[in-house]
Amino acid sequence: MEKSDHNKKVLVAMSGGVDSAVAALLLKEQGYDVIGANMRFWEYDASCDTGEKKRHTSCCSPEDLKDAERVARSIGIPFYAIKMEQDFKKKVIQPFIQAYTMAQTPNPCVLCNTEIKFGIFYEKAKSLGFDYVATGHYARRVKVHNRYAIAPAKDKAKDQSYYLYGLNQEALSQTLFPLADITKEDVRKIANKNQLPVAKKPESQEICFIPENNYRVFLQKQGVKFQPGFIRDIEGRILAKHDGKENFTIGQRRGLKIALGKKLYVIDILQNGDVIVGEKKDLDVRRFILKEPVFQALPPSKCKGEAFIQIRYNSPAVRCVYQYNGSEFHVKLLEFAGAVTSGQAGVIYNENGILLAGGTIQRI
């Protein structure tokens, strides 16, 4: 990695969207030897469709593959499609299904980045002799005390650092984020100026393998048997019956169909199928564990300190104290953070927004 970056080989993950298209273009303009690749995650068939509008709000469709190929031709780079359906099923879809059956709310985008894009895809690139992989994420790579870490992108509204806590040191050292210093508005302008075919393409808004944007329908299609139970208040009183704990997530307010004259939220989901509801103040969980931690700026050794933690994408980071005991983080929130949810990512940052470490939340 000591030689000049000029002519270094970069494999760019091209989803068919405008962000990865501009990422590939910028790298080519900077002198890299760029090759584009579209990862085929999901056998997208007619059962996934609910109409033309829906088809263009998700990724991984045949149209996205065609768009990625058209962009590659437009900017003059080689392009390949990589079949990764089995890897994706094993590493993302199966854990996604399992989490809901265990009364957790998973984050498949974190799993996809950790296990697929910066896991298997990165390993494929390395085995083929590429110097770097690159994506259209809005994130920045920095080096702190000889350790690589993710830091916020210029466009704070689009920053995706939360989803990238799972990158290990090796993958980070060989990853480029060309959009780190530009905004989404800049990306659109660059795409329009260079007449990229996806310049006006809408953003994907859904989980790529759930184009209906309805995980419940997806789980049912996958043969998951929903576990019925009772809806109880925090005192244990039965308020209603429900058809399946998989229909609920922590913090959910809509769809409870219980009239008590006050707003109710899902406070907890039990393994026996019961769903506990309460008022908003009852969501104030201050202590939890981060399982399977990944370390970035923070060295992987026993430690404790005060920092900031983000428990959901698009939720603000809040102050916390943490202690790592050699296997997991014990976290105490110093302010209200909203719905602490098992299965979601908990990501620890320093005061400058540099990613220290992250893991999977487990309520205690």
Short descriptors:
17 strands; Rossmann fold; alpha/beta; SH3 type barrels; single chain; 3 domains; 24% helix; Elongation Factor Tu (Ef-tu), domain 3; five-stranded parallel β-sheet; 364 residues
Describe the structure.
The protein has 364 residues and is an alpha/beta fold. Helices cover 24% and strands 26% of the residues. The chain has three domains: 9-136 and 178-193, Rossmann fold; 228-283, SH3 type barrels (Roll), CATH 2.30.30; 287-363, Elongation Factor Tu (Ef-tu), domain 3. It has helices at 18-29, 52-55, 62-75, 85-101, 108-127, 169-173, 184-193, 215-221; strands at 9-13, 33-40, 79-83, 132-134, 140-144, 147-151, 175-176, 229-233, 238-242, 265-269, 275-278, 287-295, 303-310, 318-324, 329-333, 345-349, 355-363. It has a six-stranded antiparallel barrel. Helix 1 (18-29) packs parallel to helix 3, helix 1 packs across helix 7 and helix 4 (85-101) runs antiparallel to helix 5 (108-127).
